[in-house]
Each structure stands twice: as C-alpha cells, then as structure tokens.
Amino acid sequence: MALRLGTENKRNVAIAATLGVIVVGLVIWEVYHFFLSPSPVPAPPPAATASVGAAAGSGSGQNAERVPVNLSKLDPTLHPEVMAEAESLLYTGSGRNIFSMNSAPPVKIEQVKGPVRPVQQQVAQGPSGPPPPPPIDLQFFGYEARGNVRKAFLLHGNNIFIASEGEVVDHRYKVVKILPFSVQVTDLLYNHTESLPLTRS
C-alpha cells in the first residue's frame, strides 16, 4: 500500500502560498505607514488681524476688511504674538465705548412732552341694559275658521305659512292666539310676543 503525502494537488498549495505572501505584505505596509509616516505640518494661521491692526493704527475709522477663513485648514494652536497684537488694539469709533468707564456719558433721551396715545374721551351714557328684541318680521293677511279651529295666513318675505294656534312657523315663530283682526306671535329666539294686525292688500 502506497503512502499519500498530500502533495498531489500542487495547485492548491501554490494558491495558498501566494495569498499568504500578499497578506504579509499588506500587514507590513500598514504597520510602516502607521508608525513611520511623518506627521502633517499644520498650516500657518490666516493673517486676519493685519487689516484690523492697520485700520486701528491709522485712526481713520475705516472698517476692517473681512478675510475668508477655511475651517478645514484652521490651526487650533494658540499663538501668543497674535493674541498680544489683538489686545493692543485701540477703540477708534466715533460713539461711546461700552467697554470703558472713562468713555463719554450716554446721550439722555428727551422726555416725552405729551401722552404717547391720545386719551379717548368717554361719552356719558345712560344706564346700559340688554338691547330690545328685533320686531317680528311676519305679516298677518287673513285667516280661515272652520268650527272652533282657526288657521292664520302669514307672510314672511316671499314665503306663505298657514298655521293654527300652537304651531311654529319658520322654526322660530309660535302662533299663540288668532283673532279676527290680529294674531299674537311669540319669537322663540328672544322670548318676545307681539300682536300683528291684519294687513289688507
């Protein structure tokens, strides 16, 4: 019986060896760049205070020019020389310096000589009470009598209603009493009763 050494598949062995060499190379490359690559040098700060210092030194009162700043290149390192230059700036404005106690006193606001809003004169009114109810907008122009039952003919605008005593007209007016020459109607909305005379057309 022949002994099998496991080297009959040389193709698989060659692929495994090649992959191993690639992995080792990648590991060495990453370690080199992580530990041995030089650190980036920070960019110098923008000279934003140069125009401010020039304007303050000249005393001409001109506004300083705005210098665009790229936040991606902003250097977080403190620079004492720049801070000292900013502290040495003098206030050259024409108004009052709110940061100095020796500055000119503020201008006093002129006193108001009259009321801000005119005073409305109150008109004397009599004793107030609830407003009177509106008149009932119905016209009584006839009635019909059959035995003891009477029906009134009422006109509201272009609408004609025929109602007996106790019935409600136009969802608001209740017919209370029907007489030959008048009809008593109650406005249910205001609880107000009127006697409407017979209208002859």
How would you explain this protein's 3D organization?
Residues 48-57 have a biased composition (Low complexity). The chain crosses the membrane at residues 12-35. Residues 46-65 are annotated as: Disordered. Keywords: Membrane, Transmembrane, Transmembrane helix. This protein is an alpha+beta fold and 201 residues long. It has a domain at 139-197: SH3 type barrels, CATH 2.30.30. Helix content is 21%, strand content 21%. It has three helices and seven strands, in the order αααβββββββ. It has helices at residues 10-35, 50-58, 80-87, and strands at residues 139-146, 149-156, 159-164, 168-169, 173-178, 182-187, 192-197. The strands form two sheets. A four-stranded antiparallel β-sheet has the order 4-5-6-7, with no helix packed on it. A three-stranded antiparallel β-sheet has the order 1-2-3, with no helix packed on it. Strand 2 and strand 3 form a beta hairpin. The longest helix is centred in the N-terminal third of the chain and has 26 residues, at 10-35. It is elongated. The termini are far apart.
**Largest sheet descriptor:** 4 strands, antiparallel
CATH architecture of the domain at 139-197, please?
A: Roll
CATH topology call of the domain at 139-197: SH3 type barrels
Name of the CATH class of the domain at 139-197: Mainly Beta
Structural class determined from secondary elements: alpha+beta
- Outline the low-pLDDT stretches: 48-59
Helix content: 10-25%
Region (Disordered): 46-65
Transmembrane segments: 12-35
Biased composition (Low complexity): 48-57
Keywords: Membrane, Transmembrane, Transmembrane helix
